[in-house]
Structure formats: structure tokens, C-alpha cells
Design goal:
Number of domains: 1
Largest sheet: 2 strands, parallel
Shape: globular
Number of strands: 2
Order of helices and strands: HHHHEHEHHH
Radius of gyration: 14 Å
Distance between the termini: 39 Å
Length: about 130
């Protein structure tokens, strides 16, 4: 189950195939497909995740993550997907992918980037 933001970010860097490799299949509710950035898509993604007892909800928005977690839905964000892809050997490095997403307007706090890079062993020593 996925919301629009992670799908858009991955599409912009030609990394959507990672989803199929990591999850097999990803369901996308109609509001996400039709509206893309519509906040209704996020609500619909969460509702559908509850309805089908999704094993993961791919969502980046802080409020959406909080709501999904409160409902007991396991969540993963775009950076978490990249971490998983590196750990499984699907990508050689995460930093170039993050840089590419940032160049396309992906918004994420520097602390999340730092945490992600540390988690995959890509932090340069000062």
C-alpha cells in the first residue's frame, strides 16, 4: 500500500522497480492514482491499509505516519525503502539516490538524511 509522495520521488529517479523487488506488489488507492498529491489520497491509502490489513504502508508525510502508526499499520518511508534496497544489494549506494530526489524537489529533513546514511554505512568521516 502506498501514498503518492514516495511513488513520485521514486519515479523521478527511475527507481520504481525497487518496489516490486522489495514487496512483490504495491497497491495504490484510486485517489492516489488519480489525484497524485491530493491529501485525500493519503487518507484513502491509510483506510485501505486498515481494510486489507496491509503488511506495510509506504508514506512520508509526518501526520500520515503518525495516524498509520496509531492504527497499528507498519510504515516505511522513501528513505527506509532506499535503506532496504541497499541492504538487499539492489542499489550500490543510497547517497546518489537521495541527492537525485532532492534535486527533483523531494523534501526531507537533514537529520533523516544523516540517519539514513549512517544506517547504511555511507557517512563520511570528518
Amino acid at each position: 500500500m502506498a501514498d503518492a509522495s514516495p511513488l513520485i520521488a521514486l519515479q523521478q529517479i527511475d527507481a520504481l522497480p525497487l518496489l516490486q523487488t522489495l514487496f512483490g506488489s504495491v497497491l495504490v488507492p484510486p485517489a492516489v492514482v488519480l489525484a497524485g498529491l491530493d491529501p485525500g489520497g493519503e487518507t484513502e491509502a491509510i483506510s485501505l491499509a486498515v481494510e486489507i490489513s496491509a503488511t506495510n504502508l509506504i508514506v512520508d508525510d509526518r501526520r500520515g505516519r503518525r495516524v498509520a502508526s496509531g492504527l497499528g499499520i507498519p510504515i516505511v518511508g522513501t528513505l527506509g525503502l532506499l535503506q532496504a534496497a541497499k541492504r538487499r544489494g539492489l542499489v550500490p549506494a543510497v547517497r546518489p539516490l537521495i541527492d537525485a530526489m532532492l534535486s527533483h524537489g523531494f523534501h526531507v529533513g537533514p537529520e533523516w538524511i544523516q540517519e539514513t546514511l549512517e544506517a547504511v554505512g555511507e557517512v563520511e568521516e570528518a
